[in-house]
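Hey all, sorry for the wall of text incoming. These are the two entities for the joint prediction.
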Amino acid sequence: MESLYLLIPFSLLLVALLAYLFHWSIKSGQFEDLDGPTQALLMDEDLPKPPVDQQDQHTLPS
Amino acid sequence: MKNVKAGAESASDHISAALNCYHCGSNIAEDSYCSAELGGLKHVFCCLGCMAIAQTIHGEGLDVFYSRRIQLGVKPDQALGSNTILNRLLAYDDPVLLARFTRPIADGLLETTLRLEKIRCAACVWLCDQHLKRIPGVSDVQINYVTQKAKIQFRLEQCNLSHLLFEIERIGYSAWPFEPSQAADLGRRERRHLLTRLGVALLGMMQVMMYAWPTYTGTGDLSQEYGALLGWASWFLTVPVILYSAGPIFIAAWRSVRHFPQTHILGMDVPIAIALGLAFFAGTLNLLTGNGASYFDSITMFVAFILGARYVELLARQDAQSGAEALAKQLPAICEKYLTYPDSLELKEVPVVNCNQGDFIRVSPGEIIPADGILIANETEIDESLLTGEARAIGKKIGDPLYAGSHNILNPCIMRIEAVGQATRIAGIAALLDQALLAKSHLVSLAERWASHFILFLLATALIASGLWFLFDPSKSWSVLVAVLVASCPCALSLAVPTAMAAAQGAVTKLGILIVRGHVIESLVEVSDLVVDKTGTLTLGQPELKSIRVGRTDFTAQRALSLAAAMEAGQTHPLALSILRAAAVENLPVDNLPSPSYGTLGRGLDAGEYRLGSALHVGLNQLIDTDLFERQAGEHGKVYLADGQGLIATFLFLDTPRPGVQELLAAAQQRKIAVHLVSGDDVQTVAWWANYFGITHFSSEVSPEGKYAYVAKLQEQGKTVWAIGDGVNDAPLLARANVSVAVGAGAPLITAGADAILTANSLEPLVYLLRSAIKTRLIIKENIAWALLYNMVAIPVAMLGLVNPWVAGIGMSLSSLFVTLNAWRLRKA
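and here's what came out:
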């Protein structure tokens, strides 16, 4: 039970840290747009080939 | 009467060819396409504009957009093919407009907010973001996916506003600068503050409950020493929740008490503040003396719940805007001004704010008229539906007045400005709207009415009980006082309404109804009269081809339609679009025209011997055919097709009823709500539609002011009025009504006056809204009944000294929880 003397102050520090992080994330505008970043993550960087059926529709036989 | 070649945009998607444009997906006729090779693949395009966009996108290596997008693009302006910045955009570099739409942030660095349009999916946002970031001089781009606003920082020496707008158009979107408003800034700060307060309360709640766990489970081996340790840890977490998170509640409560002599109403914050303050004080005292419960878990949970409900309410409320702000969006920022009319026809794009009375300007078809004025040259047709509710386009002759905010749909015309800005008619309507909003009485909610009495009763009871105990057993006097105040839970009472409202709002939002002002759900139950607008509300305000009457034996209806569609290809007039849609639905082959069709100014189209358009245009005034000429009540218009031998066919158009009208009317009837149809349209048409829908009370040719008066008269008779409308002409009506719903989020001005906005196309969600309102009312009553019942049991018991403060604390938490969970049932509408 003596461990409580260590764990409880520790949990208080943890809460303080979380509150600070939360405050920081609000201040930097992370809660303004909850949909955009989730989509942007999927959009960036990888380049898949266009699907085959679409190619047929939009492309002339050259 | 109609059908003139206008604009480059086309809806010619009816042509049944095998080829589709790579960018916009529209069908391409065999002989008229352009093609380009992009990354080794040959793609075809319907026009140079589409090709230019695809080339730009490919040139930056952003091809992945085409496989990512969910919806096809919109056909762009032909002018994009030429790759030069249009004059229309260059006007934004005028110092007046530049100062209005940008703000300096560092040396040489400007920031602007652009509102993006034609954004359809996440891929579009991504494409804009990537493209803008590649422009030299742009240092930062942030696009908000939800509001579709882009915040851009750029250096003026390398880049300017017109360049940014052009670059967005170059990839197939459009944008207009957004004036930064102080209200929006304040709103954002308020939102962030409340969210931080809520976050702190939630963190506090979770952690304090963790410390309280040994007390809940009653593991008896917790010694005094560890109990104090957990107690003090809880205390440390509760202090910020009380001081920071609940701070505004205490301030509001104090304000309410201070103004009590004038208002005679104690706000809901007063009982909340007293309960919180007392519970915290008692908890701290118990902690110091080392016996009794601490209540900290109840305090933090209660604060977190109430802030959560308030946050939901705040988000909804902030979607509303003031009338004046909305007005700015309704009108264009620039116009084409004649420098020395009538000596020369030299045009210059200038900001509207720089125009004065007496200036001459040109308004092209498809554009919004920027100021009130008088038509000087070129007769045209104007769509004034936004201002008057009249669905049909109105023919304007030389000398007729033109109003800012209406839409020129036919010919390029020249007008003389009579009034700009605040002096215009539309600004007058906006002012009326703001006035109506101010006059709207504050509805005292059910719970507030109860709470005011309840809190006085409670304080008196607690003091009397404590006083009596003091006479008999002074040692128990204090603990009875605390027990009575804590056990009698004003929290359940104060949570009863906001939680139910938040839950109901969440449910109807999913159906496409955005509740802007919280009283909607409470007031809907009391509605006795429903006032609806016709055009755009009960009907879509969009002509639909209803029948084709063929006057000759050598033509079938199908042939006539395909002939008309071929002639109308590329036209933007509403009736032309309707013919094209009808032809596309029937999948008709394209008729070959003897020669390409061309428009006669404002009357109709000619193609070889074929003529399509108004009776006058096809030369029908010599023919006498009463059947064909008879004006059908409720019709939207007629178009005639003729050749050298006379009339071939008559196309009859009707307005389309909006889906879900019958369901709404049935629901209204069931609730014994009287329905009134009030429209700006003419008598015949309104009577026809009233009969069609089975509405007995109707009124026609009513001006916006008249609609306002109509509602005011009903209200004087003691009726509670629910209004549904869509146009700017309905704005005062909506603002005046007790409950109002704006249909469609199209016009910003209209949504400013409404209590709720229907974003769905059908009216059916309103039936659910009504049903949900009735259910919410029931749940609120249940919650209040529960809170009162609980208190009726708890208070006497606490007064007798049978409840120790520890049990009272648990009771307080449980009753709050019960109320919240009961409200949660509303989430399934």
